[in-house]
Write a structure and sequence with these properties.
Layout lengths: L6 H22 L3 H18 L2 H18 L2 H13 L7 H17 L3 H15 L7 H17 L3 H17 L3 H17 L3 H18 L2 H17 L3 H18 L2 H17 L3 H17 L3 H17 L3 H99 L2 H32 L5 E4 H11 L1 H6 L3 E4 L4 E4 L1 H17 L7 E8 L3 E8 L31 H11 L3 E7 L3 E9 L5
Parallel strand pairs: 2-4
Antiparallel strand pairs: 1-3, 4-5, 5-7, 6-7
Helix pairs in contact: 1-2, 2-3, 3-4, 3-5, 4-5, 5-6, 5-7, 6-7, 7-8, 7-9, 8-9, 9-10, 9-11, 10-11, 11-12, 11-13, 12-13, 13-14, 13-15, 14-15, 15-16, 16-17, 17-21, 18-20, 20-21
This protein binds adenosine-5'-diphosphate.
Adenosine-5'-diphosphate (ADP) binds next to α20 and α21.
């Protein structure tokens, strides 16, 4: 059932979720763990509401918090779930955000091919209307420039930045400016142009004064410390990295705490505090291993090897250098050769993903239809219950009061009232018939009818007995041939034959109504016919008569509800068969159906 929550509760629940999302955003500036709590609470509530689009959005937020915390594995899990729900999202910006974040996560995990793939997917989402999404495209460009940076392709990285910066400046996008300046700083640091690098980092700190993003302060302080260290300003370098660590600890941002520890360690070593320095680098290594952050493990190995070598502790230095080389080979060489083939296979992967997406979509559609069908069946079932209990009961009351009134009317003899009474009773009778027949129809569909071997000869005996009076009164000749044993449900088959034979008698003006019941068989089905010598049906109505509430005659001519043949059709369909009619007006009708043989499912 989808509607287990009442509307007012639904509304307040949805308000609560929005509030939690706001709280998540606010907490992001202070402490990621709190933010995570809010987001997860929001996620649970959304699942109660069964709002997949919102669930997707909150999963994205949750993934983002994990990402900021540096817990990339968790971040990846959440983003995977978000991607699975992406089909419920209409907004290309949300889709872009999800893929963009995934790119960043893969980048954090050192999976650069996958990272690039995700960024490209993000870009694809924005292609709908590039003019609208300049800011997002700029962000993506910076991300891609970062990947080139990490892959040591600094010229490519610079080129992308140079192309992106003017766009960002044009629309005064502060966060983009910050990211650009920061990447410039990083590139110039690598190029050993420290003054230029320092200048860019100061620019980014300045811009962040208005953005007030603690994470950005931490990043830049850490970068600055590196530059200052290279410039020989070791004390200042230590100051900056400690500032960064304080912020990161407050945010519980493990991915960068790793870097801070390592940097503090290196600076201490340079300052002659070797033991303290090594212990910081080891702390960094432990945390990196805990988070399975291969890049940082690699950096820690590298720094440890260097520091031990400086201290002329060759054995330790050799040990860490070996571990560094092994892991480095694994990440860069293996991944790079893999990358080439992966890149080649990318188009194929994309195609497969699209196919999978389509398949998933169609599976979801089928499930949706099945759910809807299930729901409408439940509605029908509910209707059947209402019809049987709730509707029948008041009707019985109407009828019994009507007969009480009739008795009084009879006693005091008012002829006009007599006529009114007749119509009232007649209406109630018809209503009762209609309800009963609707009920039968509903049951054909909703009940779980057991199928077993049924001798149709027995069915006909029962029907003959049920219709005994009608058959006698109307002087009917019922001619029954040899009938088969079929796989079916007895009570449904009784209804089927009884309806068809009754119609054959009712729609018949012959002196002697003749009804024949015959069966022939083919290799895979039983073909049954109920033939009458009645009034017949015009060819144009051959299909319509099986539709619910279709009647070809008014009540003055023939009584009826128009539900009987619709019920017959459903019964035959439940037996995997098909029903139809042929007829010659004035001569008679031939209702026929086939039912597949048992071993022919
Ligand atoms: P009902 O008999 O209650 O009106 P049915 O669904 O059984 O409803 O039949 C629908 C219509 O098909 C009838 O109103 C009648 O006009 C036509 N019909 C059904 N059976 C026959 C028949 N054996 N011969 C002629 N007309 C028929």
């Amino acid at each position: 059932m989808t509607n287990s929550i009442q509307m007012p509760a639904k509304k307040s629940l949805s308000d609560k979720i929005d509030k939690l999302l706001q709280q998540t955003e606010e907490a992001m500036k202070v402490n990621y763990d709190d933010a995570l709590l809010y987001a997860e609470h929001a996620l649970n509530l959304t699942r109660l509401l069964a709002r997949k689009d919102k669930e997707c959005y909150i999963l994205f937020h949750t993934s983002r918090i994990y990402y900021f915390k540096g817990e990339y594995k968790e971040a990846l899990e959440c983003s995977k779930e978000a991607i699975q729900l992406l089909s419920y999202q209409k907004d290309p910006i949300v889709k872009y955000k999800v893929y963009n974040l995934r790119g960043a996560i893969y980048n954090g995990l050192g999976e650069q091919v996958k990272s690039l793939n995700s960024f490209l997917k993000a870009l694809k989402e924005l292609r709908v209307d590039e003019g609208l999404y300049e800011r997002e495209i700029a962000n993506l460009s910076i991300n891609i420039s970062n990947i080139y940076f990490q892959n040591k392709d600094y010229d490519q990285s610079l080129q992308i930045l140079n192309e992106t910066l003017p766009i960002i400046e044009r629309f005064g996008y502060q966060q983009g400016l910050y990211l650009c300046f920061n990447t410039y700083g990083n590139i110039y640091t690598i190029k050993k142009e420290y003054d230029k690098a320092e200048e860019y980092f100061h620019k980014s700190v300045q811009i962040n004064q208005s953005l007030k993003n603690p994470k950005y302060f931490a990043v830049t302080y850490n970068n600055l410390s590196l530059v200052l260290e290279e410039k020989g300003q070791v004390e200042e370098a230590l100051e900056y990295v400690k500032k960064s660590l304080a912020i990161n600890k407050k945010l519980n941002r493990k991915s960068t705490i790793i870097i801070d520890y390592r940097r503090i360690g290196v600076i201490h070593c340079k300052n002659g505090k070797f033991e303290e320095g090594i212990s910081y680098i080891i702390k960094s290594l432990k945390l990196a291993e805990e988070l399975d952050n291969r890049h940082e493990i690699l950096n820690a190995f590298d720094d440890l090897a260097k520091q031990y070598a400086q201290a002329e502790l060759w054995k330790n230095a050799y040990q860490f250098r070996t571990r560094h080389t092994e892991l480095s080979n694994k990440i860069f060489n293996e991944d790079k050769t893999k990358a080439i083939s992966e890149m080649q296979a990318r188009h194929q992967v994309e195609r497969k993903e699209r196919e999978a997406e389509l398949l998933r979509d169609s599976k979801e559609k089928i499930k949706e239809y099945a759910d809807r069908l299930e729901e409408s069946n439940q509605d029908l079932e509910r209707f059947a219950r209402v019809a049987s209990h709730d509707m029948k009961e008041p009707l019985r009351m109407v009828k019994s009061y009507l007969s009480l009134i009739k008795r009084k009317v009879d006693k005091y003899g008012d002829k006009t009232l007599d006529e009114f009474m007749f119509y009232a009773m007649d209406g109630a009778d018809r209503m009762q018939k209609l309800i009963t027949e609707m009920l039968h129809l509903a049951r054909v569909q909703t009940r779980d009818h057991q199928m077993r071997e049924i001798d149709v000869n027995d069915v006909l005996h029962i029907v003959q007995n049920n219709l005994k009076e009608t058959l006698n009164e109307n002087n009917v000749q019922l001619q029954v041939g040899k009938l088969p044993v079929i796989q079916g449900n007895q009570s449904l088959l009784i209804q089927l034959f009884q309806n068809l034979i009754s119609n054959g008698i009712k729609y018949n003006r012959s002196e002697t109504p003749i009804i024949q019941v015959k069966c022939t068989e083919t290799s895979d089905a039983h073909h049954l016919e109920i033939i009458d010598n009645g009034i017949g049906i015009k060819e144009e109505y051959f299909d319509q008569v099986f539709e619910m509430l279709t009647r070809l005659h008014n009540r003055e001519e023939f009584e009826g509800t128009g539900i009987g043949l619709a019920t017959c059709k459903r019964i035959v369909e439940r037996h995997n068969g098909k029903i139809w009619v042929t007829s010659q007006e004035g001569k008679g009708s031939n209702f026929q159906f086939f039912i597949p043989k048992m071993d022919n499912k």
